[in-house]
Amino acid sequence: MTDPPPTQQRYQTAIAQLTAAIAQSKPDGILLPLILEALAARDEIQTLLQETKGVTGETLTAIADLDQQLKDQAATIDRCLKSIDWQTSFSPSEKAWWWSLKLQKPNPWWNQDWVWQAVSITCITISVGLFGDVSARFLKGGPDTFGAIAVSAQSIGALLTAGGALTIAGQEANKRLLNRFQISEQYWHEVGAGFSVLLLTGAVGLRLSLPQIATLYSDWGFKNYKQGNLGTAEELYKRALQLNPDYEQTHLRLGLLYEDLQDPEQARTSYQLAVRAGIPDAINNLARLKILDKKPEVATSLLLKALEEEEKLSPEERYAMLKNLGWARFQQNDYSDAESTLNDAIALQKSAKLAEKAADPNDDTTLAIASPYCLLAQVKEAQAKKKAALASWDTCNANANFFITEENAWAITARKKLKEEDKRK
């Protein structure tokens, strides 16, 4: 090892003396000359580096080590230099960093690169999980156009963001892009974290919007249902339930569709799911299916409970429930209660002018106007009130809606009864 140049030796000696004095807690009056000596020696080192060619690596390493020792005493140096007007006296170059040594504050935790990298990875991981859940809902049963677009868009966003943060090729591409926009390198990690947060925001937004998207699918399905496109309607209803299984209105609509498809078992299941939300139409339709299954006690329980909250029911809903309750009571051979309940339904039909609403071509509500009369006729017959029964059969036949299965069957019975009476006369 060669001896260090005199300039380096002076710097080394000055640093050693200063370090020793600080370790011994010497007063500032003693430390200040030692500090100025170390800084002046560092000035000579800088001149040496600028004017001398071929400085050895050994020399550069030694200087770097001495510089670090000088920086380690930054707090003491800064305190002592504040006691004199050294800037006026010495006017050092702006590049002479050793004259402006200050205690370097560590970067706060939120300004550390690893923090922003952790934010990026966390956001990407959560986003991928959310996108996976959403994709599974859209792709179940095969994607449609809207679903394919949604899944593709979210997948592309996730791949681009994850690739840019986690792969070498992606990181290089991001660097080129950020350089093109002249974004300082010190902010690259923050920018990457920002994109990850945007991706997560989009993922959360899409996940939270599934109920609204499900409503759109259900409404499209109902539109097709009214147009007679039952297959398309069923597909759209199922898609809506994949996106939001708790959308009870869709369960009700699906139940109506299954009834039209002559599938009472699936209709019953759909109505039962809709009943959880207390939807009156679902309760009424499920009760009617229970009556058709010869389970009037179940229907009675459903209807009586719903009718207790009368203020929540529209006239149409209450009318349908009274009609079905009268039907259930008839099956239970409770003729007195059946007659009273059916008469209440008929009275409500007249007071609310439900027959006029049913006849309105602009009103798509299907009301079984003839049903209470048809049922009342059967109750009267069971009570051996033949004349009253015939009067009800006549009204039943006159108002029957042949698109309603029960009314169609009852109307046929009504005509037979009326013909038999005509023959007797």
Automatic annotation (TrEMBL):
The keyword Transmembrane does not apply. InterPro entries: TPR-like_helical_dom_sf (IPR011990), TPR_rpt (IPR019734). It holds the Pfam family TPR_11. The keyword Repeat applies. Keywords: Repeat, TPR repeat. TPR repeats lie at residues 214-247. PROSITE patterns: TPR. This is Tetratricopeptide repeat protein. It comes from Phormidesmis priestleyi ULC007.
